[in-house]
Specification:
The chain is an alpha+beta fold. It has one domain. It is 23% helix and 33% strand. It is built from two helices and five strands; from the N terminus they run αβββββα. It has a five-stranded antiparallel β-sheet with strand order 1-2-3-4-5, with no helix packed on it.
Amino acid sequence: MTSLPDPATPLYHHPLPALEGWLREMGAARQRANPCLWDLHRSDWSAEIELEVEELAVRWQHDGQRTVRQFPYGLSRADVEAAILAGP
């Protein structure tokens, strides 16, 4: 696995293998049908994370409601991780 840059580093400075390793470290699993989609499950919510061209998209599911947010790759990995793990 590629080592991760400092958490304050913008996502666009992470090579793809590092981004994939980061998602795995958070507990996400890659979808077999689409390698750009990752599933993350927590006890009270789940999320689908998509590595898009211009941004990282997160679609949370919680109590039958769906929340969608996009995070530009210019944001730091620490900020994006905090936002994802905070949930919907």
